[in-house]
Amino acid sequence: MNESILAKTELSEMQQVNKGQEFSMSAQPTVKNGRPSLNDLIKDLDMVIFHDQQKKPHMSIMDELLPIESKDFRDYWSYINKKLFSVILSDKEIKEDIALFRIVAIFESPEIKLDVRIVEKDKSIYYELEKGKVIEINDKGWEIVKPPILFRRYNHQANQVMPQRGGNVTDILKFINIKDDDQFLFMVTLIAYFIPSIPRPLLDLSGEQGAGKTMAGKIIKKIVDPSITETLIMSKRKRELIQVSAHHYLILFDNISNISSTVSNILCSIITGGGFSKRQLRTDDNDVIYQMKRSIVLNGITKSVYNPDLLDRSILLRLERIKPELRKSEKDFWQEFEKVRPYILGAIFSTLSKAMSIYPHVKLDGLSRMADFSIWGYAIAEALEEGKGKLFLELYNKNKSHQTDEILQESTLAQAVIKLMFNRISWKGYMNDAFKTLSKGMNVKSSDNTFPKSSNKLKKSLELIRTTLSSIGIEFKIFKHEMKGTPIEFSINKKISSFYDNTSEVPSKEHLSNDKGFDDTDENDKRESA
User: Could you tell me the pTM of the whole model?
Assistant: First the structure.
């Protein structure tokens, strides 16, 4: 079945809406094929009808919550009629019932938001272990409760183990070969994945063969969002990528080598909470809306993320090769992990509860794009060990600084701009000139998607690395289009650090001189720049 049990508390609230309500449908016989009318059935079986945030009709009936228009609902409705009334409904009769339920759900019933695995509501976080069994986490602690909310379920979802108290989050480090310097940042990020209301950074796990990257990803998946389909292949088709992301709370993409700009943009929206629409099947003008905020983990031998926007939403961790004497059979490995998984999960819930009490008092300055993650990360770090909030920020900022270096080293365009501005205060010309100049001596391969293919793509490519260039002191301005083309100016705003190996530090602005080869600035502009 596709959906979980509706909480008794919310059931009773919704039943008050439905009970006593006579649906004004003219084609409702009092008795049909030996069974009561649908109105009587709704009352007698405590059936609850509603629509979700996508206006899709749902029904809770006899401890099952199903989309009314799904095959599962057709089968279950046939089963209910057979079991209770010994009636075998024809296809026509089933379609008539579904048509009535659909109208009632959409036009006469309340809207209830559905979500996958983890939901935040009324200052509590609810984690679904299995159908009808939920952990409630708040600043007072955590406990198993009857589900007070609705969870959207899909057939691939697996039940979670029962969490146990008395464990330690650090136990997970026995199974993932993360470098010592990255271990604390990893633990904070893992716990932050249980906060559904904030954007969580993409975790890019890289390492040579034998570093256990796939196993590490599976461990994270089992802890956060267990599924029968643990690893996924990253589809290049937008519709498939969005749909598979909607069906998982945490998405694990395995063995990724490179991510296109289009896919990178989609992943950015999935991380920060984007909305997507697609044409509804068999309709001309209706859309299916996907609104989601997901956690993403991917792995590869080399790092997979190059797009600056996606990098800015990522944490890069490199795994170390597992020593031969520490290797175990897969069977023994998973047996040992499953023994401690309940305790790791319980420790995560305990840490998250403590972090929820710390979070309201956290005040940070100079927040980055992932501001909510920074604040929550500080609170989680303090919950793990008092006084470790600043360490988390240092580690996170260091990781982001490493990302800047990665962009500079991997982006042919960034390298070309740095080369252009070496020993210059400024350079000004038209886009065509800039493209030709930047292309000189760069040996750009046809497969290199970090360098534009033509001058009319240069502006867009530069905008992608604007923040990165600015961080090392290079700025650029693009001016209004003229008859000769679109003017662009590069300038130095501070001392730049060394970039190339075996290259001395780039001189400070005061000791730079303009290169006049492609410079069309007038003398006043030069004096102002100097």
Answer: 0.76
